[in-house]
Structure formats: C-alpha cells, structure tokens
Amino acid sequence: MKEKELRNLVKESGVRLVKEGLVRGTWGNVSVRFDEKSMIVTPSGLDYMSLTPEDMVLVDINTLEYAGENKPTTERKIHAAIYRERPEVNAVIHTHSPWCSSMAAARTEIPAVSESFIKSIGGEVRVAPYGLPSTSKLTNATVSAIRDRKACLMAGHGVLVCGESLEDAFQVCKILEDAAQKFISDKVSLIIGKGDVGLKEIKEAFERASEIK
Amino acid sequence: MMTEDKMIEKIKGKIIEIGKLLAEEDLSKKGDTVSVRLGDGILMTDPNIPLAELTDKDFKQISRGDNMSILEALHMAVLGYKKEGNAVIINQAPYCSIVTGKMDRLPAVLDDFAQIVGYSAKVSKSDNLIDILLALKKRNACLIQNGSSLAVGRTLEEAFTGVMVLEKGAKAFVESTIIGNPVKIGLFDSLLMNFIYKKKYSKKNQKNLLEQFKEKEE
Asked: CA angle, corner B44, sides to B43 and B45, nearest 5?
C-alpha cells in the first residue's frame, strides 16, 4: 500500500476507535508498518477527530527519527520495538479503553475464555509490569508481555494490541474490551447475586467489596 | 482587532462546545456549571440549564462585590484561590459519585490520573466552600461530598481533561476494587509524573482566556 493510503487508514482507524468508545480525546495511539524500516504513527496530543492523514508521522523503527513538524506519539518506542521483534505484525494500537483500563488498574490478566478468544489473541492476556510512560522499562515489559500474543495489558496504564493488519488489531481491541466487561460484570454478579449489571449494581458491588477490605 | 464583547461571545461558544462534550461523555446532569475568569470576576453558566442545552443567553457575568448564590461564590472562590487557573468545571459524573459516598480520597490507580490530578483526589468533608477549597489544596481537582467533581484548568480544555481523568480514574478504582485488587500508582512515580506534567505545561496557557483568544485572533 502507498504511504498516502496508509496515512488515511491510520486516520480512519483513530476515528473508528473514538466512535466505538475505545479511545477518548487524545488518549491512545495507532500505527502501521510502512516498510521494513519505518512505520506511520499518530502524532502526540492531537484529537483523532480533527486529525488529517497529513498529520500522521513517518518514523524510523530503528532510530526513532521522524520527519515533519508533528511529534509522533510518546509511545513510539513500544510500537517500534514490536515491529522490530515481530515481522508478522503490521499494525499496533494502544488504547485506554474503559473496561480494559479497569483490568489494567487491577493488574489482573484477562483469561482466555473460549476457543475463539485463543484463536484471535493467542491465549490469556498478560499484564506488563508497571513502568513510567516512555521509559525503556515500560517498552521492554510490554514487548515481553505481548510475546506470542496479540494483546497485553499495561499495568496502571491501558492496553496494547497488535495484528497482521489494522482491521485485525481493531477487532482484537473490540474482543478484549468485551471480554474485560464480561469479566468485571461476572464479578459484580458474583458479589451481589444478581444477573443484570448496570451502574446501580456496580455501586452495590463496590460498597460490598470495600467492606470486605 | 476584536472587541471585548466579541471575545466574550467566542468564550461562550467554547463553553457551549465543552458542555456538549461533557453531555456526550455522560459526564453531566442538570445543575452542573462552568465558569471562566474574566477580569476581576467570572463568566458562569446558568445552573438551571443543562450544559448540553446551553445557548449564549445562559451566562452571567459576576464581579467581586456582587450579590452571589452559593454556587457562584464557590466558582469565584476557586478562581480566587487557584491564581493560575482560568476555568472551572463542576459536574456530576457517575463513578465519581460512587466514590464520594464511600471514600475520603480517590487514589491514583492509572498513571494519567497521577500525571494530571496527582497521587490522589480528595473528597471534601462537606459541601461547605472552605472544605471544598481545603480539598483543592495542592491539587487542581477534587470530589465534593454531594457527589460532584470539580476541576480547575489554565484553559477550558485543561479543566475538561481534569473532569475526564477524574471519572476515568474513579471507574478504574471502583472496578478494580470489585475485581479485588486496586493497585495504587507509587507516590514517587506520581509526584514525578505530576511534576513533569506541570513543568511541561507551565509555560503554556498561563494567560487568562481573553488574552489567549486575543492571541489566537492576532
């Protein structure tokens, strides 16, 4: 695919993530592999809805040097490290999606709940130990946690997903968010003994869980 | 060059936009308010109008010495206390409301919360103005005993980010407690991230909103 098409694809993916409720404001970032040496990534701190394909940044995956006025996402080190280590990966998405963020805050794995989940993601979703943003510690922990998987949680931060294509990575994001929601909803049901879970039930479960602690 | 009236109209437009965004994010109910610093006073939204339905007629300019409602006095006091702040949002967000009834502070379990809000956000001991200001000590956001959230920003966008991060952090804290294991971001890491965040943005947006809008025009 040509650079222009890939830039457009990254832009469209950002908008799609916002529309699906997987990304809010300027949180999260998206990239695609351009060639063996470079990737196209979303810029730092700009709203996905107002981005243009030209705002995307071409970054060298070995040196992290970039062209143009926009600064690439601060998480570019992680994106680049995954492209270097995983030749089959052509797209990386990082989100702070609401349910996965709660799992990341609890630093709790998302279990592999079905055959289709294992087929899509590769197994349970591990948690990369905590590291300060943009540090090598966080990069190494994330690359290690996502090894032979298409996703990992980042402790106290969010979720990282990769795929053979942006569409593949996008679908993994959705599967994960649904799985995280189900995991938490099941916990709520278990605590309060009711099936349907809404905000009222979450509040009740939180109050009971707080009392236990 | 733009007149001050036109500038105020522009600020109103920005607040209307922020009000709609808050409603879209399910972070607003009737009674919520937004204010911005204007000279020695403030420009504030009408609490009787839901933020999503604001028009440019639903604003009030309040100056020091005017008769004020408790809510107006709170906005004035917050901007009086937080000299670097230019905008205040007080809103009702679902997960923040859950936390206020149960905790005296909301700890950071996500690093963007630690970065933007700090190690924790305090819950005011009461709805009293002094208690709310105390909860804001060394912080730009807090939760209010009545279930509301409050964020101050150097810009409207920064205040908006503050209430978004508060709610995101509250959701993560509530649900990680349900899962069984809310892990707080370490104090040192929190302080470091908060320091870097403040330093990064300290040179930006320090001017009041009128000056910022004037600059954009020029």
From this structure: 140
ipTM: 0.94
Would A185 be classed as within a structural domain?
Answer: no
Please indicate whether residue A75 is annotated as part of the active site.
Answer: yes
Residue A113 maps to a domain: yes
Euclidean distance between CA atoms B174 and B98, whole angstroms: 8
Chain B interface test: which of A22, A96, A99, A102 (most B C-beta within 10 Å): A102
The reported pTM is 0.92
Residue A149 sits in a domain whose CATH number is 3.40.225.10
A151-154 vs A57-60, strand pairing mode: unpaired
Per this entry, what is the length of chain B? 218
Angle at A102 between CA A96 and CA A106, to 5 degrees: 125
The encoded tokens of residue A66 equal 């970039």
Q: Which two tokens stand for residue A90?
A: 């052509």
Residue A121 lies in a domain: yes
Cross-chain Cβ contact A130/B168 below 8 Å: no
* Containing structural domain, residue A25: 3-178
Separation between Cα atoms, residue B186 and residue B203, nearest integer Å: 27
Q: Report CA-CA distances (Å) from B210 to A44, B33, B72, B78, B151.
A: 27, 20, 20, 19, 20
Task: List, in sequence order, every beta strand (DSSP E) within chain B.
Answer: 33-38, 41-45, 59-62, 87-91, 105-107, 120-122, 141-143, 149-153
Angle in degrees, CA B75, B80, B85, rounded to 5: 80
Instruction: Give chain A's domain count.
Output: 1
**Nearest residue of chain B to residue A206 (CA atoms):** B178
Is residue A101 situated within a structural domain? yes
Contacts of residue B171 in chain A, CB cutoff 8 Å? 98, 101-102
Which residue(s) pair with A32 in the sheet? Answer: A40, A91
CA distance A106 to B109: 8
pLDDT digits (tens, 9 = 90+) for B160-187: 999 999 999 999 999 999 999 899 999 9
Query: Given an 8 Å threshold on Cβ–Cβ distance, is B185 in contact with A24?
Result: no
Distance CA A83, CA A61 (A): 7
Distance of CA A61 to the CA centre of its chain: 19
Sheet with B59-62, edge to edge strand ranges: B59-62, B41-45, B33-38, B87-91, B149-153, B141-143
Do A83 and A39 form a contact (C-beta atoms < 8 A)? Answer: yes
Q: Are B193 and A132 within 8 A, CB to CB?
A: yes
Counting as low any pLDDT under 70, the low residues of chain A are 212-213
